[in-house]
Specification:
- The protein is of the alpha+beta class.
- The protein is about 40% helix and about 20% strand.
- It has five helices and five strands.
- A five-stranded mixed β-sheet has the order 1-2-3-4-5.
- A hairpin with a 3-residue loop joins β3 and β4.
- The longest helix is centred in the first third of the chain and has 17 residues.
- The N and C termini lie far apart (about 60 Å).
- About 20% of the residues are buried.
- Bound molecules: coenzyme A.
- The site of coenzyme A has 22 residues, from β4, α4 and α5.
Length: about 160
């Protein structure tokens, strides 16, 4: 009996450790999100476009398009959706190394796609750096087709 009890307790513990929920970003997530982006090698610009003010403004504008994945109070993943009224853009998909290959990025992207559809957007897109094989595989698996071209941008400053 004791053994059974211990076994089910461990199973319960394991399950709760594995349970990862996805919810909208709130200002209190800010530090954890920046840490996560830096840890996974995404170009965070906390003095510019990723300042607390700017990310909170984005989160407020499109209330549910900035998502964080959380387990046991720890932010372990992110995805930031933006749109221009025609196309939904999927940005900043990131998962901490210890939580990878469990379908979490797929869940985050799937949630954003659902929200884009609710907004009537029929095209979804993302920009992926050429050497980012993991991300390319992720989006291919989710049905995205590659478009080859060059990305041009114009910035007010390097932090923009
Ligand atoms: C890319 C990233 C978000 C994937 O997160 P993840 O939670 O491990 O992805 P998932 O578990 O949802 O993977 C779904 C599918 O994507 C593909 N995939 C994910 N990581 C992969 C890898 N390292 N190599 C090859 N394929 C990979 C696989 O097809 C995988 O399905 P499978 O596990 O059944 O084979 C994660 O590696 C990451 O945070 N990378 C650093 C940040 C980054 O580059 N973000 C993308 C910016 S565009």
């Amino acid at each position: 009996l004791i053994t059974d009890g211990t076994f089910s307790f461990h199973r319960f513990l394991l399950k709760s450790l594995m349970e990862i929920s996805i919810r909208p970003f709130t200002p209190k997530d800010y530090d954890a999100v920046i840490r996560l982006w830096l840890e996974v090698g995404l170009p965070a610009k906390p003095r510019g476009r990723d300042s607390k003010k700017e990310l909170c403004r984005l989160a407020k504008k499109d209330a549910s398009l900035f998502l964080v994945a959380e387990t046991e109070g720890k932010v372990v993943g992110t995805a930031l959706g933006t749109h221009d009224g025609r196309k939904g853009w999927i940005n900043r998909v990131a998962v901490l190394p210890a939580f990878r290959r469990r379908g979490l990025a797929g869940r985050l992207v799937g949630e954003l796609e659902g929200k884009f559809r609710e907004l009537g957007l029929e095209v979804m897109a993302c920009l992926i750096e050429e050497e980012n094989q993991a991300s390319m595989e992720l989006f291919k698996k989710m049905g995205y087709e590659e478009w080859s071209g060059k990305y041009f941008s114009k910035r007010k400053s390097p932090e923009s």
